[in-house]
Every structure is written in structure tokens, then in C-alpha cells.
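C-alpha cells for chain A. Residues wanted.
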């Protein structure tokens, strides 16, 4: 036991500030996205959780790009569960479900932050041009 204060506990009561932040849905896909998005309770739980997420305030020089051409914003997000994720989290669950590791699906399945329908921007299905 130690009485040392963790400097991350800047906002008491905000669950995400406690302890190290496990990373969720930083996956590398290598397939084209699914033709039809999977909008089940798992996707909807992530949508609800993601809408309650807070940006980490850390901005990277680049962004994360999916094998299908969708790309993330250049910052990470802290979900109410304390997991850190990226803006492709919903995209991966809806459009690359086959490639998401089972243990990560289980984590999202255990979320209890409500459910919500993803919008087009959250699904990130638009054709990305570079
Ligand atoms: Zn993709």
C-alpha cells in the first residue's frame, strides 16, 4: 500500500482518471470493410460510450488509418469505462467486426453507458480521398 497520489487523479470522481488506461480498439485491419455495417447492441454500446468520451487533449502529428481508407482524428479519447480509444472505434465494430479480437468485443459488451444509433460520421463510411 502506498499513499502516493497518482497525478492522473486530477478530477476526482471521473472514473477514467483512475489508474493506467487500458487501450481499446487499436487494431490493424487488413481486409476491406464489410458491405453492410453491423449495428447491434455492441456497436450501439460503443456509440453511447464514445459520445460520453473526453478527448485526451494530446494531438498527434498524424492519424490512424484503416485498411479501407477511413481515418481517425489525430487525438485519443477516454471512454467513461476508463479505456482509451480512437475515433475509429465505432467504425471497427460496425465495419470490421470479424477482425476485432473477441476479448475486445467482450469489453464493449460489458459497457453500461446506454445505447445509441451511430450516424454516418461515426460509422466513417464516406469515401476518403487523399
Ligand atoms: Zn475500415
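Reply:
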Amino acid at each position: 500500500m502506498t499513499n502516493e497520489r497518482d497525478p492522473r487523479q486530477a478530477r476526482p470522481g471521473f472514473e477514467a482518471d483512475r489508474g493506467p488506461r487500458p487501450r481499446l480498439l487499436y487494431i490493424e485491419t487488413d481486409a476491406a470493410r464489410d458491405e453492410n455495417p453491423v449495428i447491434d447492441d455492441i456497436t450501439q454500446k460503443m456509440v453511447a460510450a464514445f459520445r460520453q468520451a473526453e478527448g485526451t487533449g494530446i494531438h498527434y502529428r498524424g492519424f490512424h488509418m484503416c485498411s479501407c481508407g477511413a481515418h481517425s482524428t489525430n487525438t485519443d479519447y477516454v471512454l467513461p469505462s476508463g479505456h482509451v480509444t480512437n475515433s475509429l472505434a465505432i467504425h471497427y465494430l460496425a465495419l470490421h467486426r470479424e477482425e476485432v479480437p473477441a476479448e475486445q468485443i467482450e469489453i464493449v459488451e460489458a459497457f453500461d453507458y446506454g445505447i445509441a444509433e451511430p450516424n454516418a460520421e461515426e460509422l466513417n463510411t464516406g469515401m476518403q480521398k487523399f
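The radius of gyration is 15 Å. The chain is about 25% helix and 10% strand.
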